[in-house]
Structures are given as structure tokens and as C-alpha cells.
Task: inverse folding
């Protein structure tokens, strides 16, 4: 990755080498030996392509040189196109089908090998490979249409809504400085009327500091409205997805999307969300009542008034907050936070993070740091690269890149590749050589995983980098994904680490947030960056309580969004605005505001597509694991707790039924069985944020 030319050359060598493995995989139809090795061959093919694709994905978003970034984008796009083409290769599909129908072979294979085969077959079937030629062409056309509509929908979701007019008299009662700021920032051809842009600073001030309810109502409706084009784009996207799902044999897009999930069926997801809503709604109603009481006091009313959707932001900021008396960020530098992660991993898993030297040209920016992940008995088991600081040209926000998964490599059989190549002119050298090590308790050698974590934390020029509490949570969350990749080293790339069910993958990372909040964890590392004085936990608890004062209300809103996502991707539903309004009546705790259609701003309707519930699902499981396995906030975070979670969950990646993993670690037979009963049980657990009410 040292130059644009080197990246392009890497892409070409990868494509050439991949074609050899494709040829070998197709030979499985005529060779029982190759049929038995088929899953290994296709998994190697997937690993080879994904290492380069994922590396290019990182480089094109992180590298400061635009020429290098462009070359990475070019390689990324044509290798992704090649990968998509393989999903429509009939010979590969027929070979895999022969493998899955061979009872003798299946009887001698492991669950994880069969799972890899099922995952590949699932991808084939979603591509409509079993359909006649004309219908396969329709699948391709619909898939292209969905990508185009999805891009348009995401673009629309981030666009400002049209400006709205508001009379100057509606600003009466605002703090004078804020009123002047709104008036100076808003322009209108009419003297007594202001024109305000939704999501602007002026709009923000109106929603939070205008006592006049009509002013806030107009602001709320304007920012939550949609243009006819925005609504039409969403409806067209939903319609195209429904057509695609039915064409390839599913009753709905939701059914198609849930094929590799724990929930399995749309009705199971809706059961989970209904049960979760029943659990959380009382706490959300209490949140509403506390805000309504503030409204009652402010308006000097004799009764508790109803709360409108535009009331929350205004009255919440009038409520008293018990804030910490010291600056919490002073106790969380970036360095001590990473040290805290390392100490927690050592306590629980016998694993630590160790700064590592880097070769010249190894990273894309001087601010990147490399950490070795070291097991106390096995030595180095992987690498984490940290790109923490904000800089010009770097994508904003946090990101997690699995550049390389672990897999077994000593049984790759390169001799068989050379026979399949049938030509000495073909370069059989693996495009990217990777180090491998032996694993304790397992035969063979495994390639070392590589994870890149990107954050958006201030500037490296203003050291030490002091983190807010949400930033500390984010570091721990992303490190939860990283440790899953390090410990979850399986024989197959496609079930290694975080390559697991969509509604299971967030469990280790959300659990890290729970562990972070415990006094035992905070005591491991939180100290003042100058004096070294430990952080008084009661001060942190004040901040957490303040930040999570209305957590139940926020979570209930997320339940509504997940339900909307599921309904709009089901087999029968009305238009999106009607469904969103109905959810306010059946599930919501605040009334629907007529004239609004916020759903066109919900970009996750495209990016998650019937799986938005997954984060809530894993929050419920993580909360249960935290209290049951780790003793909750009173837990001591000792090795026995960590070893149990490590051996029962983390080490398997996606190579074992997740219901069995969770059932075993919780010692819960209902959960271990999976199915509808287990899904409903998870909903009954709640997600832990009603503990502050």
C-alpha cells in the first residue's frame, strides 16, 4: 500500500489468485476429494478477497493522499463487483449444493464448517441463482434499483428541511441574548416575520428557550416534515425491496434479511419488540410524568398537563440536574483510557495491550498507534491500530475495520492450487503474506487478526487528549469488538470473531460499556491527568445519572423505530407516514404530531433494513450477562467471570449457535433452545436503562 501503483498491482494479483481458487472450487463437482475440501477452498477465496477489499476500504477513508485513496477506491470497487459476480456463478452454486446434500460428508464435518456452507448458500439464494435466466436478470435490475434508491434516500435523509416562518411576537419571553441571536440570523421579506432554517442555531434556540408553545410547535413540525419527493423515494425503496424478496422466494424483505439471525422470523422480532415495549413503557411514562410536572410548575397549573412532542426539549432543560462538582474529563486521558481497557482485559481474560514499534510506511498517518494484543500464555494473538485524532480529510466519527480475520492456514494445500492453475505462468504467491501462530489447545497454525479503530478525538497537538464520558464509552465499546476478533479465532474466516449473526455481534461491545460503568473497572484507571488522584466514583455516578435521566424514554423511542423498520419491511403495510402515526397510538408515550413524517430522516431504514432491532436485542442480552455472570455493578471483575464468558462465548466467534453460547454462559435452558420462547424471554429482561428510574 506504499503507492497508487502498488495498490493497483495488489488488486490485479488478488484477482488472478482468486480465479485459481474459483477454478479449484468448481472441480468439486467431479472430484470427491475436492468436494470434501470445498468449504475450505471457498472460505480461503473469501478471505483472500476480503483482506484486500477491507484494507482498501480503510485506505480510501483514512489515507491523506488523494491519489492513494483513489487507487484504493478503484480496487475496492472492482473486487466487490467480482465478489458479487461470484454470488451468481451457477457452477459454484451447484458444487456447494452437492456438498450440502451429501449426507456422508456432512456426518463427518463440524457445525462451524456446515455454518460456513450455509452462509455461502444463503448469499447465493439471495442473488436469485436458483431462478430462470429472465428472473435472474430481474434480480440484478432490482438490486441495482435498490442501491440507487438507497443512495438517494440517504442523501435526502441528511438534507435540511424547507425553512419556516415565525412571527417575532412568538419569541417573547426568550432570554434577550438568544432572542436577538434568532432575529439576527433569520431573514424574511416581511418585517414582523422571521424565516428560520430547521436544524440551524436559531432553530435550536427556539426549541429549547421559547416559552411560547406555538413557536416550538412550528419548529417541531418543520424539522420533522418531508417533501413529496423524499416520501416517494422511501416508498419506492420499500416497494423495490418487497419485489426483490418475493422474486427470490421470500414472503417479505424482512424474512429475507433475517435468514442469518438469531430471531430468524419477522414475527419473532415483533414479539421481542412488543415484550420489550411492555417492559419499558412504565418507566418511559414516568419519564414523561416528570417532564409534565415541570410544565405544570412552569405554567402554574392545578393539574398535570399532557405533554406535546415539542415540549420535551424545552422543559427538560428547566429540570434540576445533580451534576458532578469536578471536571470528569480531567480523569480520562486517551492514554489512561486505553490503559484501562488493557487492565480490564488482563483481569478478565489474561490478555493485555502493548505498544508496538512500526516499520516505515506501515501506517497511513503519523498519528496512528499500533498495539500488540498479548495473551499471557500464547504471546501475541493479534494487532490493533488506533487512529484516534481528528484531522483534515479524515472521515468524521468512529469506525471499526476488520482488516484481517483469523483462520487456520497450515492446511491450505497450495499444491492443489497449482494443479488447479494448470499453468506455470500463474503467480500462486498469496497477494498479502500474513503471519501465523500456533494456538493453545488446537492443532495447526492460525493467521493473526488485524483490527483498525478510528475515532474523532480533538487534536494530537493538544495533549493529553482528555475524553468526555461518552467518548470513554465509545473507546470501550469498539475495543469490545476488537477483543471478540482476537479471542474468536476459528478455523474459518467467515465465522471468525465478529463475523457472526447480526443480532449477536454487538453483545461483547455493549457488555464492555456495562463493565466500564462498574466501580471496580473505573478504579483500574480513572485518575487525574496531572495529579494522579483517583476519580471519586460518586462524582462519576452523578454524571451518569444526569446523562441517563431520560434513558427509558430514549430507549422507548428506539423500540418504536425498530418496530417501524420491521413493519415497513413486512409483507403487508400501509404507507410509511400512516404506519409511523399508528405506532404513536399503539406503542408511543407522546402523541403523533399531524403533518410530520420524520421517517424520511431515518437513514437506518436503508442501512439496516429489517435488522435495526439488533442493537436493542444485544443490549438486553448484555445487561443480563453483566448482572448474571459479572455480578453487575457490585461485581469484582475477577478472572473466573472473564474465563467463563471467554470460553462460553468469545472464543467461538460465529462458529457455534449463538443461542447455545448465551444459554450456556447464563445457564438458562430456555435460551439455549432458541426459537420464539427464547426471543420473548430476552424481551422480558429489558435493556437495563430503567434502573435509574
Result:
Amino acid at each position: 500500500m506504499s503507492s497508487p501503483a502498488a495498490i493497483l498491482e495488489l488488486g490485479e494479483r488478488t484477482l488472478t489468485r482468486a480465479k485459481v481458487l474459483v477454478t479449484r472450487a468448481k472441480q468439486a463437482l467431479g472430484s470427491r476429494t475436492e468436494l470434501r475440501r470445498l468449504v475450505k477452498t471457498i472460505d480461503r477465496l473469501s478471505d483472500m478477497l476480503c483482506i484486500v477489499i477491507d484494507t482498501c476500504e480503510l485506505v480510501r477513508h483514512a489515507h491523506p493522499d488523494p491519489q492513494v485513496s483513489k487507487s484504493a477506491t478503484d480496487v475496492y470497487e472492482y473486487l466487490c463487483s467480482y465478489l458479487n459476480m461470484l454470488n451468481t456463478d451457477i457452477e459454484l452454486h451447484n458444487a456447494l449444493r452437492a456438498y450440502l446434500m451429501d449426507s456422508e460428508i456432512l456426518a463427518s464435518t463440524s457445525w462451524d464448517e456446515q455454518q460456513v456452507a450455509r452462509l455461502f448458500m444463503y448469499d447465493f439464494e439471495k442473488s436469485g441463482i436458483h431462478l430462470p435466466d429472465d428472473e435472474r436478470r430481474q434480480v440484478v435490475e432490482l438490486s441495482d434499483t435498490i442501491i440507487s434508491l438507497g443512495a438517494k434516500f440517504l442523501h435526502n435523509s441528511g438534507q435540511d428541511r424547507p425553512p419556516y416562518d415565525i412571527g417575532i411576537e412568538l419569541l417573547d419571553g426568550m432570554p434577550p441574548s438568544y432572542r436577538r441571536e434568532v432575529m439576527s440570523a433569520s431573514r424574511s421579506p416581511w418585517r414582523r416575520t422571521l424565516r428560520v432554517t430547521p436544524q440551524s442555531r436559531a432553530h435550536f434556540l427556539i426549541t429549547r428557550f421559547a416559552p411560547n408553545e406555538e413557536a416550538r410547535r412550528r419548529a417541531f413540525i418543520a424539522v420533522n416534515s418531508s417533501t413529496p419527493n423524499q416520501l416517494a423515494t422511501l416508498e419506492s425503496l420499500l416497494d423495490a425491496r418487497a419485489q426483490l424478496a418475493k422474486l427470490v422466494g421470500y414472503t417479505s424483505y424482512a424474512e429475507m434479511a433475517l435468514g442469518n439471525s438469531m430471531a430468524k422470523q419477522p414475527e419473532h422480532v415483533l414479539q421481542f419488540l412488543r415484550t420489550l415495549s411492555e417492559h419499558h413503557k412504565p418507566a418511559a411514562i414516568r419519564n414523561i410524568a416528570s417532564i409534565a410536572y415541570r410544565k405544570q410548575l412552569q405554567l402554574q397549573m392545578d393539574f398535570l398537563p399532557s405533554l406535546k412532542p415539542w415540549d420535551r426539549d424545552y422543559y427538560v432543560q428547566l429540570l434540576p440536574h445533580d451534576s458532578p462538582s469536578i471536571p470528569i474529563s480531567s480523569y480520562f486521558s486517551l492514554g489512561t483510557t486505553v490503559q484501562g481497557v488493557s487492565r480490564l482485559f488482563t483481569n478478565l481474560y489474561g490478555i493485555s495491550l502493548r505498544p508496538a514499534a512500526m516499520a516505515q510506511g506501515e501506517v497511513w498517518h503519523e498519528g496512528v498507534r499500533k498495539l500488540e494484543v498479548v495473551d499471557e500464555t500464547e504471546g501475541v494473538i493479534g494487532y490493533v491500530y488506533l487512529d484516534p485524532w481528528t484531522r483534515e480529510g479524515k472521515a468524521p466519527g468512529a469506525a471499526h475495520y476488520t482488516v484481517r480475520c483469523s483462520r487456520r492456514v497450515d492446511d491450505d494445500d497450495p499444491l492443489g492450487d497449482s494443479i488447479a492453475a494448470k499453468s506455470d505462468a500463474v503467480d500462486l504467491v498469496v497477494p498479502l503474506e500474513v503471519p501465523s501462530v500456533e494456538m493453545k489447545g488446537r492443532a495447526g497454525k492460525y493467521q493473526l487478526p488485524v483490527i483498525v479503530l478510528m475515532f474523532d478525538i480533538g487534536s494530537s497537538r493538544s495533549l493529553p487528549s482528555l475524553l468526555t464520558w461518552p467518548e470513554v464509552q465509545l473507546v470501550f465499546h469498539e475495543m469490545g469488538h476488537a477483543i471478540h476478533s482476537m479471542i474468536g479465532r476459528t478455523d474459518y474466516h467467515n465465522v471468525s470473531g465478529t463475523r457472526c449473526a447480526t443480532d449477536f455481534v454487538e453483545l461483547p461491545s455493549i457488555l464492555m460499556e456495562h463493565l466500564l460503568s462498574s466501580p471496580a473497572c473505573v478504579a483500574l484507571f480513572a485518575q487525574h491527568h496531572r495529579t494522579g488522584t483517583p476519580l471519586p466514583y460518586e462524582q462519576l455516578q452523578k454524571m451518569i445519572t444526569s446523562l441517563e435521566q431520560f434513558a427509558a424514554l430514549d430507549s422507548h423511542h428506539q423500540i418504536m423505530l425498530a418496530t417501524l423498520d420491521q413493519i415497513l419491511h413486512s409483507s403487508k403495510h400501509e404507507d410509511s407516514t400512516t404506519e409511523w402515526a399508528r405506532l404513536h397510538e399503539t406503542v408511543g408515550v407522546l402523541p403523533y404530531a399531524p403533518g410530520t413524517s420524520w421517517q424520511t430522516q431515518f437513514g437506518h431504514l436503508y442501512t439496516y433494513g429489517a435488522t435495526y432491532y439488533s442493537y436493542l436485542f444485544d443490549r438486553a442480552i448484555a445487561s443480563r450477562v453483566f448482572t448474571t455472570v459479572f455480578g453487575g455493578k457490585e461485581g469484582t471483575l475477577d478472572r473466573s467471570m472473564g474465563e467463563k464468558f471467554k470460553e462460553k462465548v468469545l472464543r467461538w466467534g460465529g462458529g457455534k449457535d449463538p443461542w447455545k453460547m448465551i444459554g450456556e454462559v447464563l445457564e438458562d435452558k430456555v435460551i439455549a433452545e432458541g426459537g420464539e420462547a427464547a426471543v420473548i424471554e430476552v424481551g422480558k429482561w429489558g435493556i437495563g436503562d430503567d434502573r435509574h428510574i
